[in-house]
Amino acid sequence: MPRGRYSLHDPHDHTPLAEEHFQCAPGPTGWRYVARRTTPTGEHTGSVDLTLDDLGRPLRLELHAGSWQVRGAALDGVTWVRTDPTGAHATEGTVRAHAFTGTSPAFLVATARLLRLTPSSAATRVRLVALTDPVLAPRTVDQSWALVDSEAHATDNGPLTVDTYQVSALDTGEQHSVHIAGDVVLSAPGIELEDLESPPSTFA
């Protein structure tokens, strides 16, 4: 069960934004990721709890950021309920999309798991509901994912396969690379893996 810490920063000016202390593992239903968010000085700011099914679809999502909360799942596309800080109002939404995304590295692993690309696969278009910090506002985005390289690296625990994806935003044409090993993001824009206590899990 991988356990570790990511640092999150602004991808443009590298301002530190948060640290995400996580653990994740494959399970009977698919894969689960849980994490707590802190500021760079250690103050609690939120949490992530994401469970995928065997096909990589979101069975259950619960996000907290400040006093905002979102609960969601795959249901006729993706469906969610967003609750305001007072708890007095909740808004529901449903979009014909494949999954959720956001600033947590968990969403990158989840999208890669959903698409199951190979180096010979053509670039694949995916529609996601992005839940944006700091108020978890939902926004529909279209991306293109391609697996451009898959390379095995020798480690003390045996070979570790690192997959490199090229991700393109279809509305702006902006492209970036995402490096994933098993169920751990090694690096991506705004994300750095700072600490990992055990090797990444591999999916069957």
Kindly describe this structure:
With 204 residues, the protein is mainly beta. The protein has one domain (3-198). 5% of the residues lie in helices and 59% in strands. It has 1 helix and 15 strands. A hairpin with a 6-residue loop joins strand 11 (137-153) and strand 12 (160-169). The longest helix has 11 residues, at 105-115.
Itemize the secondary structure elements and their pairings.
Blueprint: E1 3-9, E2 16-26, E3 30-38, E4 44-53, E5 58-65, E6 68-74, E7 78-83, E8 90-95, E9 99-101, H1 105-115, E10 124-132, E11 137-153, E12 160-169, E13 175-181, E14 184-188, E15 191-196
Parallel strand pairs: 9-10
Antiparallel strand pairs: 1-2, 1-15, 2-3, 3-4, 4-5, 5-6, 6-7, 7-8, 10-11, 11-12, 12-13, 13-14, 14-15
Question: What's the end-to-end separation, in Å?
Answer: 15 Å
Rg computed from alpha carbons, rounded to a whole number of angstroms: 16 Å
In N-to-C order, the SSE pattern is: EEEEEEEEEHEEEEEE
| Side-by-side strand order of the widest sheet | 8-7-6-5-4-3-2-1-15-14-13-12-11-10-9
Q: Uncertain runs with pLDDT below 50, 5 residues or more?
A: none
Tell me how many strands there are. 15
Number of helices: 1
What share of residues are in beta strands?
A: over 45%
- Range of helix content: under 10%
For the residues shown, what is the average pLDDT?
93
Number of domains: 1
For the sheet with most strands, the description reads: 15 strands, mixed
Which structural category do the helix and sheet elements fall into?
A: mainly beta
> What overall geometry do the principal axes of the alpha carbons give?
globular
